[in-house]
Each structure stands twice: as C-alpha cells, then as structure tokens.
Design brief:
single chain, 135 residues, mainly alpha
Length: 135
C-alpha cells in the first residue's frame, strides 16, 4: 500500500468518525473549532507575555479542549437516545461552549492590552444564556 493511500485512509476514517460522533459538520461545529484554536493561540500568547509558558500548561489546555469535544459527543449521543432529531442538546452544548471559548478569548486579548468592544462581550453573554436556556 502506498504511503499516500494509507494517509488518506487514516485521515478520511478519522474525519468520518469524528463527524458522526459530533452529529455532523455544520456551522456550529466549525465555529466551535475556530474558537478553540483562537483560544489556545491567545492563551499561548498570554503565556509568552507573562513568561509562564511550559509544556504542562499547554498539555492541560489541550486536555480541556478534548474534554469539551467529549461534552459535544455526549450531548449528541443523548439526542440520538431520546429521539431528538433536531440536535437540541448538541446545539445547546455547542452554543454554551462557543460562548465559553469566546469569553476566554476576550479575557486573553484583554491581558494582551487590547480593548474589547462591549457589543462583543454582550453577544457572547447572550449566546451563553441561550445555550443555558436550550438545555
């Protein structure tokens, strides 16, 4: 088997499995992934600024992200079990986690000395409240 074929099989299989577990790849999942990456990057930037970067803290950050993905998988599986065809719990969990990540990004940017527009903070708080209401 060629190496590129093996790589395609591994990445394709992983992508399909993850898409199934997350309940599909839609705008919420894409936004969640983008927010997680931005939060991680801004967290590392804050660590560099405060001279507190180390591999243990970086690993802990990645472990938290894996935990968040696990929450989405659990919410999606609960939707399947109870027969929610519209993904009610999954969407609520994603909105809550997106808001959480967004608030963390805003905090990180504040620590870097950037002013954060109030409308952005209000929108993230509203999104967090919607996620709470949908549960």
């Amino acid at each position: 088997m060629k190496q590129d074929t093996l790589w395609a099989a591994i990445t394709g299989g992983t992508s399909i499995t993850l898409a199934y577990l997350l309940g599909g790849l839609d705008n919420l999942v894409a936004a969640f992934a983008i927010f997680m990456v931005c939060d991680y990057i801004t967290g590392v930037m804050v660590g560099f600024k405060e001279k507190r970067v180390n591999s243990y803290r970086a690993f802990r950050g990645i472990a938290k992200k894996v935990g968040m993905i696990t929450f989405v998988i659990i919410a999606n599986q609960l939707d399947i079990i109870v027969g929610n065809k519209d993904g009610f719990l999954r969407d609520a969990m994603l909105m809550f986690l997106i808001a959480t990540e967004g608030i963390s990004i805003v905090e990180n940017l504040g620590k870097l000395g950037l002013k954060v527009p109030s409308f952005l903070v209000k929108t993230l708080e509203q999104l967090s409240d919607k996620g709470d209401e949908r549960k």
